[in-house]
Write a structure and sequence with these properties.
The protein has nine helices and eleven strands. With about 300 residues, the protein is an alpha/beta fold. The C terminus is likely disordered.
Amino acid sequence: MANETKMVILTPHVHVFHIDDGADSHPGGSNNYFVGDPKEEMLLIDTGDHKRVWTDALLQAWRDLGSPKITAILITHGHADHYGGLDRVWDAMHAPVRAHPKMSKILKDLVPEDALKPLKNNEVLRTGGGVSLKAIFTPGHAIDHTCFYFAKEKVLFTGDTILGSSSATMSDLKSYMKSLEKLSHLGHESIASAHGALIPAPRGKRLVQVYIGHRTEREQQVVASLQKGLSTVDEMLKDIYPKNLKKGLRESAKRNIRNHLDKLMKEGKVAESQPTYALGSASAKKAASKNGAGRANGKAPAKAKASAGKK
């Protein structure tokens, strides 16, 4: 049921607020995390989107925990479903807001500027119950993405870099693969993502490698499509993805194919030929008719501007 919420305890110091937001792009709903000791202090990871039903339910979950002091509000990255409710959450919690430095411009319109404290890569954040999280900059899904690692209980908070019930999208695949490689060397056993199911051990321990394998396989599929003579993203989409792919997922799938092509171009393995444009026969006749009318009225015909495509 859309907007249904629940609280789950993942480990002794990780409390999960889950909402079924009904989004096709990330099946399995969304998660925000309270990390620490509710009798002392806690960290909050992400504040959800701007919908009041989400913010109200998140704040009620905090009150159900006893309204513990929030040491800091951590934002994983600059997509609206991760910081959209921040202004109302901050009004209740009055906690420092910690995020990648590139997010400051977005967040300063939501909270007082002195509440913003940009994160540093590998910074350690401490809260109640002897809990400490390590902030790890992980560009790829977004340039301003940060994951958090709770070494004591071996939980990796992955934001949108790794999802619990589907594959992730990215803005820069080359950076994304480097981030996955970085995460693969941590000693985590559980994956706590921003969307989808919680992934405990033993699958959580393997999931980063599964993601690396999936991306490697998808790249091989893109190369195979090119070897078949397919040259457009739409052709590759039909070749690679199942015919019954949900309509709401097609744009994300095409974006992933483009990201693989961009990576292959950066590596010098693929060359791009930009399209050129010409008027179709019907349009050409219409333009010719207008130009003739223009000459009859003493007006000069408009000139078409040609541009060579990049090879």
